[in-house]
Amino acid sequence: MSQYQNKAGKTPAVKVMENLQSALHTRLEAFLDTRQQKAESLLKLVDVLTHLRQADDLEILLDEATLTAIELAGVSGAAISVTETHGSDDLTLYRHQNMEPGEPDDLIFDAESPLLTAARDAGGPLLVADLVGKTGPRSRKRAVLRRLGCEMVVPLICRGRILGLLLLDRRTDGLPPTSDDTELLTAYTALLSMAIENIQLHATKSGRAR
Asked: What's the confidence (pLDDT) of residue 188?
């Protein structure tokens, strides 16, 4: 037997190629599985769009939106704080699911708060861990988010104006958020923001009509 062959009769080069092929096959299967999961999530998002367009009550919309965010992000809890009326800036109206606030004002955010400013500047999903240094060393709201187990903050922005915040706790599988997660959440919150603004505009016009 050649010194370049192992007991199975394969040269080291052949063995390396076989190992590489096996590893690539495993990675390809994982990649396709991820693509399939993403496709399924996008189909769910299309279905959600139908419900968002039909919603005409802010409280009902937020209830459905909170549950949908939990499913899309693969987390166990979420909360949403939004402006109550069109043109207001403070985030006061909120809904939460499996993310219990400790105090009544835990999910109320002042328009000029450092946390809201950081979320507005980010323009997309922002990890709570990345808020350190952006909200000051003694930020009460950041401490509230940590106590709630919130891992990610997603601003609800429409026409350059922040309408609210979506708060998400950790993923149920224990893994950190992926780029696919943030991409999906960005698309979802953009649609949700438009639905919120439409409801608020309709309510404002109805009030004027009366």
From this structure: 85
